[in-house]
Write a structure and sequence with these properties.
Helix content is 39%, strand content 15%. The protein is an alpha+beta fold. The protein has a 3-stranded antiparallel beta sheet with strand order 6-5-15. A 3-stranded antiparallel beta sheet has the order 8-7-12. A hairpin with a 7-residue loop joins β10 and β11. α8 packs antiparallel against α10. It is flat.
């Protein structure tokens, strides 16, 4: 018996698991036994999303990546996280015996992180793509192409085509089903596996498409209801009331008066000449309209809570940010991005570095770009960092210049405290 027979009504000795939701595929049960299958409407606009791995919701909507990203709040939040992770530099450092650190630019992993992870993507494109897969689906996978001195490329894999399997001895393997060709089995050492923070089994992460399916489905319904109201509803600004009956001639004059003199933006605010004792009664927004707007706003806030992105960055608050931009960056890093920083740094060390290399090599995001603040704030910070006579700073001039993307000073002058240079000049 084929799968079409099983879907379209023929009984089966071993029925498939029921699919939660409405209208896609629901089992009719009686007395604890499966009696029949409901038919599938092939014209259902949500069927393609369901077949592509969409999540069903109690609101009766299939939440897919495409439908979720059409939600303005969700789209903004996802792009803030994905774009920020892709933008921030991810550096490989080497810790020396003297405790000093330097960028390990001679290591092949440095090239993957900062130059070219694979022939088709830049570092920004690779990091943002992987972050987006992990954020939406819980895991992001990439095949590690081996090289002579170390990994030479990272090729992303579709997370919907990857299955993680664990044997009785706790060993893992990754089963990948490409679009063409047979299945491929990869060892953990061959896969770069970036997992989201929440997981039930410690192997597969739960992405936002699954965790926020109900909120996204309900938000889509409220947006659709508002669109339907705008498309089909009748919006009347007010009523012209007459104590008796208005003559046909007066009606025609009023009709032409409105069409010729008051239609269009250019006629906004003009006064109407009433006919035969007409009185005007304006109509305000109804409580039902206000309730609909409140529901849409509530769903936007509900969706935003799943992402952890601060409200001002989602364009909720209509206040001036002013000098609070630095605090916004700090809030974004602390409460939203820091778990992802740790996840990236640990998976790079585990998957791309040898065990012997992890004692001296480590990976770290440079989140300083989000905390720079205004030029005035930077000037005050660098002034205190460099210090002066009687003030013990903790930076030399070259370190401050590096933060501003400037070259070191000539002759090694920037490696000495700035105030010591002044003393040297005075002594000479």
């Amino acid at each position: 018996m084929g799968w079409l027979d099983r879907l379209f009504g023929a009984p089966a000795p071993q029925p498939p698991l029921p699919v939660k939701g409405s209208g896609i595929a629901r089992l009719a049960q009686s007395g604890g036994e499966v009696q029949a299958y409901s038919t599938i409407n092939l014209r259902d606009e949500h069927l393609p999303d369901f077949l592509r791995g969409g999540m069903t919701s109690k609101a009766g909507r299939t939440v897919s990546e495409y439908s979720a990203m059409r939600n303005a709040t969700f789209n903004r939040a996802v792009n803030v996280v994905v774009g920020t992770i892709g933008m921030l530099p991810l550096n490989l450092f080497r810790r020396g015996a003297d405790g000093l650190r330097e960028k390990a630019t001679d290591h092949p992993v440095h090239r993957l992180l900062r130059v070219q992870p694979n022939p088709a993507q830049t570092p920004y494109q690779f990091k943002s793509f992987m972050q987006g897969r992990a954020l939406l689906y819980g895991n992001a996978f990439a095949y590690i192409v081996p090289g002579v001195r170390g990994p030479q490329a990272l090729w992303p894999l579709d997370p919907l085509r990857v299955t993680i399997e664990q044997a009785d001895d706790f060993s893992l393997q990754y089963r990948y089903r490409p679009k063409t060709g047979g299945e491929r089995i990869y060892k953990p050492s061959e896969i770069f596996d970036l997992r989201g923070p929440w997981s039930e089994d410690g192997l597969r992460g739960h992405g936002l498409l699954r965790m926020a399916a109900e909120a996204l489905g309900l938000a889509e319904i409220t947006d659709e209801a508002a669109a339907r109201l705008l498309r089909n509803g009748a919006y009347v600004g007010g009523i012209l009331e007459h104590p008796k009956q208005l003559s046909e001639a007066a009606i025609e004059r009023l009709k032409h008066q409105f069409q010729d003199g008051y239609a269009g933006v250019e006629n906004t605010g003009r006064w109407i000449v009433a006919e035969e004792g007409l009185t005007a009664k304006p109509l305000g927004a109804s409580g039902r309209d206000a309730e609909g707007l409140a529901q849409r706003k509530h769903q936007a806030e509900e969706v935003s809570r799943f992402t952890g992105v601060p409200r001002p960055l989602l364009m909720f608050d209509e206040t001036s940010w002013g000098t609070g931009i630095e605090q916004l960056g700090l809030s974004l890093i602390t409460y939203c991005l820091m778990p992802w920083f740790v996840a990236w740094e640990e998976v790079v060390a585990r998957s791309l570095l040898k065990e012997s290399e992890r004692e001296t090599l480590y990976v770290k995001f440079n989140e300083g770009a989000l905390l720079r603040g205004s030029l005035k704030d930077q000037a005050e910070f660098l002034s205190k960092a460099i210090g002066g006579p009687g003030q013990g700073g903790w930076m030399v001039a070259d370190e401050a210049r590096e933060l501003m993307d400037m070259n070191p000073m000539e002759g090694g002058v920037g490696q000495r405290p700035a105030w010591s240079n002044e003393e040297t000049k005075d002594a000479s």
